[in-house]
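Our preliminary data section would be incomplete without showing what the modeling component actually yields. Below, a chain of 278 amino acids is followed by its predicted structure, encoded as C-alpha cells that our downstream tools consume directly.
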Amino acid sequence: MIPVAFDYVRAASAAEAVALLTEHGDEAKLLAGGHSLLPLMKLRLATPAVLIDVARIDDLSYIRDEGAEIAIGALTRHHVVERDPLLLEHLPLLAHATAQVGDPQVRHRGTLGGALAHGDPASDLPAVALALGATLVAEGPSGRREIPADDFFTGFLETALADDELLVEVRLPKATGAGWSFQKFNRRAMDWAIVGVAALHAPDGIGTGIGLVNMDSRPVRSAAAEAAVAGGASAADAAEQAPDGLDPPEDANASIEFRQHLARVLVRRALDEAGVGA
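Predicted structure:
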C-alpha cells in the first residue's frame, strides 16, 4: 500500500529534532532506520503529517566507557553494537542478541534507539534492555531526563517518551563476567519470536534479570521467575513461574497456553545457560 502524504524534514542535531517535535506535536514522527515506522505507514496504521529524519545526527552514534556503565548513543546502528569490543567484553548479551535482529541489511540501517523507542513487545532488544537494567535518556524542551527501562515501556507500541522528546542515549551497567543467555523460538529464520528470553545472572552484582519477548502487550520482565531465583530456587523451579502475572497474546502463531509453555521451557534453558544453580 501507499502511505498517506506527509512532509519530510531532516534534523541536523538533537536540539533541532526536539524543536521540530515541539512545533508539530503528535502529528510528527521520527525516522531513524525506518524498519518499524515505514511498514506501519504503508499499512496506514501510522499516518504522520511530518517525518523528521534524525538518521544523520552523527553525535548520537557512539559507544563509550563511563566507568561502571556503558553509554550508547540512540542512533548507533545494530551492526556496530554487535561487533563493538567494549560490549563484547562487558555486555555480551546485548551484542549477541543484536546479532539476531533481522538480517544484515536491517542491522546496517536499524538503530538501538529506534528499536527501543518503538516499544514492540515482539522485538528482541526491549527484553534485553529490561534484563540488563538499562536507563534510557530522553531529551526534550526542558532538557534531559533519565527513564529506567522498567518504566519506559507503557503499552502496546507505547513508551514513556513525550510527543516532544527524543531518545538520545541508552546507559547500561557493566555485567563483566556475569552469566547470560538469549533464547527465542520462531518458525522460520528472521521471523518475529513467538516467545523469547533474555537472561542475565550476576549473583554478586546486579542480580538476575529476565526479559521476555511476546509475553504481554508491552515488553516485560518475568518478575515471578526473578524473585524465585533471588529466593534460592533452582532454574527448573524458577522457570515454572515464568509466565505468572503476564498476559500473553493469542494469534495465528500461538495460543496463550502455548506461549506460557514456551516461556517456561525457554526461561529454564536461559537460566541453566546463565549459570543459575551452578
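The chain has a mean pLDDT of 94. The chain has three domains: 7-52, 60-173, 179-274. Preliminary results of this kind motivate Aim 1 of the renewal.
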